């Protein structure tokens, strides 16, 4: 029978141990419309939602208002953010977009954009997010635009309408309420074009670096005559009426200033907002200017070794780079790569360039055209001797002409650089071909395409090095070439967010797009990053014989394993495995010209008429081009070499499979699709400017009919808000969710099991083998919880131990020591489980011991038995020094542990007293030994020592009182994780010290203030919790929660007849400690100076809401030899003896979720769990200075027949009752109850 099927026998006989009863109650509550109160919010957010896909979370959101709000919890989307494997759009690297500052709306929008943008763009019908177009008001005539990668900011070159004045305007494009609006403006002397902008650091300030080119007349007389060369298009080659000078200008705007402008007090565009902006300092900061007399056709920005650089390519086959910090200028002279025999000549043209900052190289695309001479040129060539031609525009300027007053300019602007004399310029290819006339019409144009990679020169030098390059013949002349944007992954996000996503960030593919005409063809070239070790491993050794000769027929040595991802780099190269290209033919529309908006994988194409040569071309079609090629064999082989890349790619494909299917992906044969709805009708008069950002899927266009308006089109379907900041769509009304959850839960046994694990607050069922099926683990988990909640165990057995010898209980093993006349024996009782027999007993002889073990501890998962004995060593003065030996043995054989580097450690202590006590703790690879004085205000020192027992290294050594007086004394120790330790410190007022490895004192948790004086003091203070041996925890993902119990005795002397003893226990959740560490910025791993003092957390800050305090039986004092009897804890459960009733005990469960909707009430013979949510108040009579109130809720279940036992132990599967000792009997019995 399937576990979710209805069974009438269960209705008659009460609840069973399967999940059927849980499902019935779940559906019953759904019918009563109480589903949302059945589980606490943190169970949904922390337990259920993380196991659902993004698709399922979005579907759950549509169920009701309650789930709508829960699915918008910030921590939910931040947890998803840390686990996604697909690329995400970049964010501005500011505090505003740090990991801690991201809101749930912004985090969700980031994830959803990255998830569905590629699916929509690659779909059969790429569509806009919405068909409503709200233009952004620019308040100026827009001339050109450039989007900063990520789409959050955009620069626009603008002009005033009435006067011939130009400026550069920064727009905020992703405001959550106001969409886009201008936030900053800087005047330019002429029109800015070829704009480039990136997030970059300049002199320690993170901001946006923007570079642009401007031009103006070279002669002062022409400038005075108001000759305006800015009005000419930069997209065409123009024969200017006067000589022209070009200038590259670089500006920087601080992101802090941008943040102030983006979060205004007043609405953007209002008069109040403009007045507010006028009171702020100018955000733009001029960085540098570079002048040249040769046309600057290409511009790029990059950051290398922490310094910003500007690069620009000139028409004379030269690339100039400038370090914006040191101001050193370097040049790259690009040599001709194609040799053409005279009398023909080569005309070489740069088409595109892109800087690869991480590998200090630059990509350049050039074409070389063979130009045959005309008959007239051949005749003249025979009459004249060849002379050097000077194509420098300003070579023949009269000496008395003022060349833009460069000397005055340099004095006024220290950041300006005159690049001086330029190299010889080349005529334009098209012009050369046109000048040949009809005599050259029948000769074919032979053009060669070269993709080149140059090494960047050292600052201040000139490079003439030969590049790496690939040469390909082209079928026809190229119309345009574009290279996709390259930004280094380290500049994607704020450092705090980058640390969360760094393992999922890959270098982008570099895509190069080339448009050919006749036939109309798109050539797509790709440079793929390939991972390689940062330090190449040495070659494997070759087997040789005794003479040093290679052994024939020997097996080749195995390749070395790949290094960690942190020791690798990714590089682009022109090798066959990292470079490929694909020509794409178009079947129709051969009369149209394509304009490329490049992207690494998402490219936008705009089609115009072939004969449209106007300044503002009229678009007739828009296309989405998607890289639909499947991974090549080289890609597959590369993933096989690097397993983490393979795992990354497979996980990303799995996460996106459902949304790719929902958008119906186009086939490989159809990489180009028309956008929907068509946009051409909005631009019938032409397009002035446009910008495309492939990361966010945002397209911005300015129509010629409305040059002051920017239309924004979104192709990433992401959450939106209205003008009031409300999410769209608004929450739906509550609906009957019975059918929804019935279908979701009953069809997935795994989901049912995950829900039950979340209710239990654990990651897996304790004691169940990993190979067991889900249904078996689910039934065991439900049956075990039913047994604990009703105190109905399934079996009972009895074991014995020697009362005067030490013992240890952990991992389902009760280990005790027995002695004989000549040796010592470790008795290992493997306790029974729900599905096993009655357990087993094994005896192991411990050889080589002269003295009896004083304290023992064990870890069955690591086959470790640790114990201490008195040492054989005797010092010269035995009254001064005392020695102990720490032994590490195998739990199976009793011999020295094979992994222990310190099988026997000698510990030296000052003095020796009989009342000393020892505590030995194991947590994973770490072991700690505490020696303390249990007497009130004892004069002896306390020692705490910790070792990494596998490596044999000390990680902790504390002696109290220490030199700082921080620890006067301590009485007990507990591990939370290997990174976090708790120390109980009863003096001077009772407090809990929180330490980490290497003795980093992090926090001091104070206990309630009690009345001070000689008549009251704390006796020994004990602490108990079950440790988690996983050190891979963080503030965002703490380990499973557990309960921590601290027991102490307040003793009041000078009370008539006898001292009054108040035994008190305080219980709190381990998560409280982790939350306090995170709140104070001290969650391990944390780097603190050696002299850093701990943060003192007063009781009122953490205790009242996070603790529950009890008064124990006044007749009982703490047993220092067997402390765990009185303070049994495991997970979220603890056992306590009721005050005034020494024979009555209860199990306290601080995971109250397990008792909401439990089945205990259906069993009339079972004790019912009492849910305690009311605060407990302790009056300050004689003990405390103030009233003490604690509120931590818990459930209490009475233990049947508790009068037969003097103490208890427990773990997740068992309750152990320690019977009263029989006089004159050395052995004591323990009853084991299995649930």
Structural commentary:
There is one protein chain. The chain is an alpha+beta fold. Helices cover 17% and strands 35% of the residues. It has 22 helices and 66 strands. The strands form 17 sheets. It has a 5-stranded mixed beta sheet with strand order 6-7-8-9-16. α19 packs parallel to α20.
How is this structure best summarized?
This protein is α+β, with helices and mostly antiparallel strands. InterPro entries: F-box-like_dom_sf, F-box_dom.
- Assembly type: single chain
* Shape by Cα distribution: elongated
Number of helices in the DSSP assignment = 22
Structural class: alpha+beta
* Helix content bin: 10-25%
Q: Sheet with the most strands?
A: 5 strands, mixed
Terminal-residue CA separation:
24 Å
Major β-sheet strand ordering: 6-7-8-9-16
Sum up the structure in keywords.
17% helix; disordered N terminus; F-box domain-containing protein; alpha+beta; 1235 residues; 5-stranded mixed sheet; F-box_dom; F-box-like_dom_sf
Task: Describe the secondary-structure layout.
Blueprint: H1 8-13, H2 20-31, H3 35-38, H4 41-48, H5 54-61, H6 65-70, H7 74-81, H8 104-121, E1 136-137, E2 141-147, E3 153-159, E4 166-175, E5 179-188, E6 193-202, E7 205-217, H9 220-224, E8 244-254, H10 255-262, H11 271-278, E9 284-292, E10 296-304, E11 307-314, E12 318-323, E13 329-333, E14 345-356, E15 361-371, H12 375-383, H13 406-412, E16 416-418, H14 429-435, E17 446-455, E18 462-463, E19 468-473, E20 478-483, H15 495-501, E21 510-516, E22 521-527, E23 530-533, E24 568-571, E25 579-585, E26 592-597, E27 602-609, E28 619-626, H16 633-641, H17 643-662, E29 672-674, E30 687-693, E31 698-703, E32 709-714, E33 720-721, E34 727-728, H18 738-746, H19 749-760, H20 774-790, E35 795-802, E36 807-810, E37 813-819, E38 824-830, E39 840-846, E40 855-859, E41 864-870, E42 881-890, E43 904-910, E44 917-923, E45 926-932, E46 942-948, E47 953-960, E48 972-977, E49 980-985, E50 991-996, E51 1000-1006, E52 1016-1024, E53 1043-1052, E54 1060-1069, H21 1070-1079, E55 1095-1097, H22 1099-1106, E56 1107-1111, E57 1129-1130, E58 1133-1137, ...
Parallel strand pairs: 9-16, 13-18, 51-55
Antiparallel strand pairs: 1-32, 2-3, 3-4, 4-5, 6-7, 7-8, 8-9, 10-11, 11-12, 12-13, 14-15, 15-17, 17-19, 20-21, 21-22, 22-25, 23-24, 26-27, 27-28, 28-29, 30-31, 31-32, 33-34, 35-66, 36-37, 37-38, 38-39, 40-41, 41-42, 42-43, 44-45, 45-46, 46-47, 48-49, 49-50, 50-51, 52-53, 53-54, 54-56, 57-58, ...
Helix pairs in contact: 2-18, 4-19, 7-8, 8-17, 16-17, 19-20
Pfam family, one: F-box-like
Protein name: F-box domain-containing protein
Domain F-box: 39-82
């Amino acid at each position: 029978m399937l576990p979710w099927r209805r069974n009438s026998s269960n209705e008659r006989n009460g609840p069973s141990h399967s999940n059927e009863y849980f499902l019935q109650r779940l559906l019953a509550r759904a019918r009563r419309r109480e589903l949302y109160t059945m589980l606490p919010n943190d169970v949904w957010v922390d337990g259920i939602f993380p196991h659902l896909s993004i698709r399922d979370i979005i579907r759950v959101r549509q169920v009701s208002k309650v789930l709508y709000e829960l699915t918008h919890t910030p921590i939910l989307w931040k947890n998803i953010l840390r686990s996604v494997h697909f690329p995400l759009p970049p964010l501005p690297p500011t505090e505003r977009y740090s990991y801690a500052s991201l809101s749930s709306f912004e985090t969700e929008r980031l994830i959803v954009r990255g998830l569905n943008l590629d699916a929509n763009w690659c779909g059969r019908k790429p569509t806009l997010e919405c068909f409503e177009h709200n233009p952004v008001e620019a308040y100026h005539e827009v001339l050109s635009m450039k989007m900063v990668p990520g789409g959050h900011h955009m620069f626009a070159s603008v002009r005033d309408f009435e006067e011939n004045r130009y400026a550069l305007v920064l727009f905020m494009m992703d405001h959550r309420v106001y969409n886009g609006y201008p936030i900053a403006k800087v005047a330019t002397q002429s029109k800015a074009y070829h704009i480039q902008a990136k997030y970059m650091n300049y002199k320690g300030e993170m901001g946006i670096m923007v570079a642009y080119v401007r031009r103006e007349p070279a002669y002062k007389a022409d400038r005075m005559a108001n000759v305006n060369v800015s009005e000419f298009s930069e997209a065409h080659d123009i024969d200017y009426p006067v000589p022209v000078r070009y200038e590259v200008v670089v500006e920087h705007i601080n992101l802090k200033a941008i943040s102030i402008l983006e979060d205004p007090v007043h609405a953007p565009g209002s008069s109040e907002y403009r007045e507010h902006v006028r009171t702020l300092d100018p955000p733009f900061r001029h960085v540098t200017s570079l002048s040249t007399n040769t046309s600057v056709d290409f511009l790029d920005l990059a950051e290398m070794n922490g310094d910003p650089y500007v690069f620009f390519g000139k028409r004379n086959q030269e690339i100039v780079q400038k370090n914006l910090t040191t101001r050193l200028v370097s040049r790259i002279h690009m040599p001709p790569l194609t040799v053409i025999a005279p009398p023909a000549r080569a005309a070489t043209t740069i088409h595109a360039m892109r800087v690869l900052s991480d590998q200090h190289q630059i990509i350049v695309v050039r074409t070389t055209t063979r130009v045959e001479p005309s008959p007239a040129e051949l005749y003249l060539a025979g009459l004249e001797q060849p002379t050097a031609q000077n194509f420098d525009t300003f070579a023949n300027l009269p000496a008395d002409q003022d060349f833009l007053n460069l000397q005055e300019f340099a004095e006024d602007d220290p950041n300006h650089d005159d690049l001086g004399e330029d190299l010889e310029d080349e005529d334009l290819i098209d012009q050369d071909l046109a000048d040949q006339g009809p005599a050259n019409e029948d000769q074919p144009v032979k053009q060669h395409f070269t993709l080149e990679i140059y090494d960047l020169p050292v600052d201040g030098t000139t490079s003439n090095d030969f590049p790496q390059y690939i040469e390909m013949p082209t079928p026809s002349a190229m119309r345009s070439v574009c290279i996709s944007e390259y930004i280094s992954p380290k500049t994607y996000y704020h450092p705090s967010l980058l640390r969360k996503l760094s393992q999922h960030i890959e270098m982008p593919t570099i895509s190069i797009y080339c448009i050919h005409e006749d036939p109309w063809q798109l050539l797509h070239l790709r440079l793929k990053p390939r991972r390689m070790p940062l330090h190449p491993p040495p070659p494997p050794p070759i087997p040789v014989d005794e003479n040093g000769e290679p052994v024939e027929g020997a097996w080749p040595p195995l390749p070395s394993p790949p290094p960690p991802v942190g020791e690798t780099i990714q590089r682009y190269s022109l090798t066959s495995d990292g470079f490929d290209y694909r020509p794409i033919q178009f079947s129709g529309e051969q009369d149209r010209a394509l304009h490329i908006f490049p992207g690494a994988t998402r490219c936008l194409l705009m089609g115009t008429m072939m004969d449209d040569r106007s300044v503002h071309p009229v678009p007739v079609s828009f296309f989405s081009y998607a890289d639909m090629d499947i991974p090549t064999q080289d890609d597959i082989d590369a993933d096989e070499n690097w397993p983490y890349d393979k795992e990354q790619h497979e996980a990303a494909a799995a996460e996106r499979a459902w949304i790719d299917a929902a958008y119906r992906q186009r086939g490989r044969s159809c990489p180009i699709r028309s956008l929907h709805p068509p946009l051409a009708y909005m631009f019938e008069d032409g397009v002035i400017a446009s910008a495309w950002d492939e990361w966010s899927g945002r397209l911005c266009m300015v129509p010629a009919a409305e040059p002051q308006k920017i239309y924004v089109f979104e192709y990433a379907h992401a959450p939106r808000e209205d003008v009031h900041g409300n999410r769209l769509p608004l929450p739906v009304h509550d609906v009957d969710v019975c059918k929804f959850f019935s279908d979701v839960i009953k069809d997935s046994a795994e989901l049912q099991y995950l829900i039950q694990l979340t209710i239990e607050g654990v990651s897996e069922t304790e004691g169940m083998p990993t190979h067991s099926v889900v249904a078996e683990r689910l039934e065991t988990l439900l049956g075990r919880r039913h047994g604990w909640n009703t105190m109905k165990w399934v079996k009972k057995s009895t074991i014995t131990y020697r009362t005067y010898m030490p013992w240890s209980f952990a991992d389902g093993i009760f280990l005790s020591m027995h002695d004989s006349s000549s040796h010592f024996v470790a008795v290992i009782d493997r306790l029974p489980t729900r599905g096993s027999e009655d357990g087993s007993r094994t005896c192991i002889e411990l050889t080589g011991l002269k003295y009896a073990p004083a304290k023992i501890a064990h870890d069955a998962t690591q086959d470790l038995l640790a114990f201490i004995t008195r040492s054989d060593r005797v010092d010269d003065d035995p009254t001064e020094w005392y020695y102990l030996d720490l032994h590490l043995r195998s739990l199976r054989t009793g011999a020295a542990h094979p992994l222990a580097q310190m099988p026997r450690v000698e510990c030296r202590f000052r003095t020796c007293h009989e009342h000393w006590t020892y505590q030995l703790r194991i947590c994973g690879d770490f072991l700690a030994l505490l020696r303390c004085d249990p007497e009130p205000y004892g004069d002896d020192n306390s020692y705490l020592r910790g070792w990494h027992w596998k490596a044999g290294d000390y990680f902790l050594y504390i002696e109290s009182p220490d030199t700082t007086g921080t620890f006067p004394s301590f009485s007990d120790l507990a591990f939370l994780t290997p990174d976090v330790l708790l120390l109980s410190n009863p003096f001077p007022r009772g407090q809990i010290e929180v330490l980490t490895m290497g003795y980093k004192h992090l926090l001091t948790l104070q206990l309630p203030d009690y009345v001070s004086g000689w008549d009251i003091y704390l006796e020994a203070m004990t602490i108990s919790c079950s440790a988690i041996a996983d050190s891979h925890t963080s503030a965002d993902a703490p380990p499973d929660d557990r309960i921590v119990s601290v027991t102490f005795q307040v003793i009041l002397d000078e009370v008539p007849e006898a001292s009054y003893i108040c035994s008190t226990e305080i219980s709190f959740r381990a998560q409280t400690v982790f939350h306090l560490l995170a709140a104070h910025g001290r969650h391990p791993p944390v780097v603190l100076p050696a002299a850093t003092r701990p943060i003192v957390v007063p009781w009122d800050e953490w205790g009242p809401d996070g603790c529950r305090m009890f008064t124990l039986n006044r007749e009982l004092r703490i047993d220092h030899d067997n402390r765990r009897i009185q303070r049994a804890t495991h997970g979220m459960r603890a056992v306590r003896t009721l005050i005034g009733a020494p024979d009555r005990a209860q199990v306290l469960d601080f995971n109250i979720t397990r008792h909401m909707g439990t089945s205990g009430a259906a069993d009339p013979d079972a004790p019912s769990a009492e849910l305690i949510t009311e605060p407990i108040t302790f009056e300050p009579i004689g003990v405390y200075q103030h009233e003490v109130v604690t509120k931590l809720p818990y459930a209490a279940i009475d233990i049947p027949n508790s009068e037969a036992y003097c103490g208890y132990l427990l773990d997740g599967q068992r309750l152990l009752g320690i019977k009263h000792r029989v006089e004159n009997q050395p052995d004591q019995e323990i009853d084991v109850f299995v649930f």
